[in-house]
Amino acid sequence: LDVYRKDPNIVYAEIQHEKGGTFRSQDKGETWKRMGETDPRPSYYSQIRVDPNNDLRIWELGAQMYYSEDGGKTFATQRVRGIHGDFHAMWIDPANSNHMMTGSDGGIHWSDDAGKNWNFLNVIAIGQFYEVALDNEKPYHICGGLQDNGSWCGPSQTLTREGIVNEDWQVIHGGDGFYAAIDNVEPWIVYTESQDGHLARRDMRTGQQRSIMPEAKAGEPHYRFQWNSPVAVSSHNHTTIYYGGNYLFESTDRGDSWTRLGGDLTTGVDRSRLPILGKVPDKNTLSRNDGVEEYPTITTMSESPLSSNVLWVGTDDGNLQVTRDGGKTWKNVASKVPGVPKGTYVSRVVASKTGEGAAFATFDGHRSDDYAVYLFATTDYGETWKSTCNGIPNSAGTVHVIREHPRNTNLLFAGTEFGLWVSWDRGGNWTALKNNFPTVPVDDIEIQARDNDLVLGTHGRSIWILDDMTPLEKMDGSVANSSLTFFPPRTATTWFLRQRRWSAGQQMFTAKNPPYGALLSYYLKEGVPPETPKRNSEDRTEAAEQRPRREARAEAAEKREGKVKIAVLDKDGKVIRELDGPGAAGVNRTNWDLRANPPAEPTPEQQEAIAAGFGFGPRGPLVEPGEYTIRIKTGDKEATQKVTVEEDNRIAISASDRAARHEAIEKLYTMAKSTDKDRTTIEGIQTALTSARDQWKRDAGKPNAPKIPEDIVKAADELQKKADGLAEKYVRPRPALGNAGPPLEWKPEPLPNQVQNLLN
């Protein structure tokens, strides 16, 4: 329905009916006139808009945009072009009908010329990921499928300073994207699936893609595939893959040929005989089977990480099947799961690392108006099941996925319709895991074992990564009761980062890279008391009068906690870096940038440049690959951990070159310290001489001022000239404001700058 803004007597309606279409009323709905039969796929769209300034200009939303200038008698579909279809929302500016916005399966677009040309609002992360997969490259990649936006692959981290942008991701499959599976030995081989079973294998090196969808032999019933059909690479043989239809298919040659493992694993029910709202559908049923091409089918499968003979399968008609002999025989254990209504959709089955017969299963009953949380575990091949959902309320929505940590198998994660949940006792109790993570459907969870990252595929807020979840992995009662616990840092890499862009405005999406260097995570039972600020009365007056209130409040909030002291020691026990870390109660995190202490403080010019985004100022050199000790101290409590630093894996350098480079860096580092000290000394002499001579000039002629002997004045003048001449080697004169050109007279860079440039 839509009401004309200028005259609410005029109402338009789209009606789904054998004789339905577009209708108009001029008396607030008392009587109606059928304008035409246009009503695109009403079960999925059913949106109509009236131009707020022209009651005959009508828009109807569908796979295409339908546009009418005669009140719906005739429609054109070529006005809106060049943007993603499947429109579900539209807004027209009441003050200017040329200004419009649409929401479609492709996101948000706006037009300033009544829909002839469109701009893409591509700066907000609203992707709808069904499934995600990870490889083991460095940095690792993520592949996943999105609702009506195909399947994509992209990096978890880029080696650029700006972070991750849309251009870092590439489309690898069309249609609606769902499962992706990456070869665990040859990660350039990726399997992707689009709706209703269309499976493909792609070589990421060449872009070559081949359809490998299993096909029934001529004369046999066709295979049924779910909207979201599961595909998996065997953890025991990387050329073996599994694919779920109404059968579970196995291929030992990457999909070039297929074998059915057993018979039809669904109930095989004929859905045309199943009643909907009490009535068996017939040829007159509108929108019959819309969006669900086939039923019943396999929705989830899992291979045991301990034995390739143990396979699990769940279906959309409620079967939960397990085989112990590689698919020769199957047993349906759905009836053994307590409290789950028969026929409930199996949303996930996941084999556990704790035993060949161990697995988790989740069920989704919302299609039957059942919003209970169903999450179960078994240790005996499904003969008995235990509910493991304590702490997850029904208001969390149905459960989509469960994952087990690869090392700490007591640590579980569950994704529901309204968020993410964590359990530290193997499902005995659950807690919502929030921080800055939004309330959003979590459709898939993966864990990158090497980096210990938690990767979430959400339906509406794209992909989220929790970098290095070691604090979650190691958290237990002993940690919670300790005054200070320093969690083991993961291996750090001295990546060499490049700058990709210059000044490109704000109309682009950029995701953050993980913090550079070594992530340092630690737990404090109590917050560190803040240090008392050292200020005199003049400082306090200036702060009160000049600092904006908002900044003052932020500073006050920051000072409610103190800082921990962090030191980095080399293999000889020498402190090479000192820094502060946050001191709040609970888990804290900071990072060491893999550099030694800066050899100097930034000059005023460098501080201005840093604030403007140019350069970093003086920095210590990157450390050599090897093992370092990190020490964290607060009060009388102290904790240490080792961290391994690796070289950027793109760098090839011989041992002799590395030694020569290290020797040069050590010399430059020492020179950087000494030249900065010399610069400070010379500037101090300059300032003292200038102040004294200026004061003498101001005092000259005053009756009570002491007279400075002429030889002293001349000596000071000569010393000033020498100091100024020497300062030219250490200090660059500040250019005039706004000057970006070269100096009128060329002079070499100051010595501290030369040394720092070489060091960098």
UniProtKB/TrEMBL annotation:
Molecular functions per Gene Ontology: hydrolase activity, acting on glycosyl bonds
Q: What is a biological process (GO) this protein takes part in? A: polysaccharide catabolic process
Under InterPro entries, the record lists:
WD40/YVTN_repeat-like_dom_sf (IPR015943), Xyloglucanase_GH74 (IPR052025)
Q: Please, which domain of life does this record's source organism belong to?
A: Bacteria
Residue spans with biased composition (Basic and acidic residues)? 532-561
Print the keywords alphabetically. Carbohydrate metabolism, Glycosidase, Hydrolase, Polysaccharide degradation, Signal
Region of interest (Disordered), residue spans: 528-561, 726-760
UniProt cross-references to CDD domains, sorted A to Z? Sialidase_non-viral (cd15482)
Q: Which family does it belong to?
A: Belongs to the glycosyl hydrolase 74 family.
Q: What is this protein called?
A: Sortilin N-terminal domain-containing protein
